[in-house]
């Protein structure tokens, strides 16, 4: 009698144990699906033709007129020597990071990115009680051109393309303009790469 009761209890416990494992299995399946979807985010190449797999980033040309650098204040923004070199390097690094287009030499690349650095601005955003500028915005402006080298076709061109950042010059969150400039270049590089792989 006791044995039959134990068997009956065991039979009732098995479904409970099985149900207890369902949430874990479901979570594992959901996690795997999310990983697959996020992984595909970098590999679906949303706006790229299938034959475009490599890119040559032509060194950016600096066409900034230093004598006309604009600022929302009497003090001119820092002008860093060879900013176009830093921008070119940042764009190449961004392509390598995303994996959407692999940087290559000119003669080996399927497409080509060309750019001109045309302006560098520093604009006041916030003042303190003493009318001193607390927060600034740094902006880089470029002209871009994207070419399919397999057909020698210009896929798109865009002028006045901008990347920017803000920084505090006064107060507890103060940072150097040079540090903010690095961040602005990184922002512009990210936007340039995103523009080159989106739907044209």
In short:
38% of the residues lie in helices and 30% in strands. It has 200 residues and is an alpha/beta fold. It folds into 2 domains: 1-40; 54-197, ABC-type transport auxiliary lipoprotein component (Rossmann fold), CATH 3.40.50.10610.
Structure description:
The protein is α/β, with parallel strands linked by helices and 200 residues long. The protein folds into two domains: 1-40; 54-197, Rossmann fold, CATH 3.40.50.10610. Helix content is 38%, strand content 30%. The chain contains three helices and seven strands; from the N terminus they run H-E-E-E-H-E-E-E-E-H. The protein has helices at residues 2-40, 83-98, 177-197, and strands spanning 54-57, 61-62, 70-71, 102-103, 111-127, 133-148, 153-168. Strands 1, 2, 3, 4, 5, 6 and 7 form a seven-stranded mixed beta sheet that branches. Strand 5 and strand 6 (133-148) form a beta hairpin. The longest helix has 39 residues, at 2-40. It is elongated, with a radius of gyration of 27 Å. The chain starts with a helix and ends with a helix. Residues 14-22 and 25-43 have low confidence and may be disordered.
List keywords for this structure.
3 helices; 2 domains; 38% helix; alpha/beta; 7-stranded mixed β-sheet; 200 residues; 30% strand; single chain; Rossmann fold
CATH topology of the largest domain: Rossmann fold
Number of helical segments?
3
Shape: elongated
Please estimate the helix content: 25-40%
Content-based structural category: alpha/beta
Mean pLDDT reading: 80
Can you name the CATH architecture of the largest domain? 3-Layer(aba) Sandwich
How many β-strands, per DSSP?
7
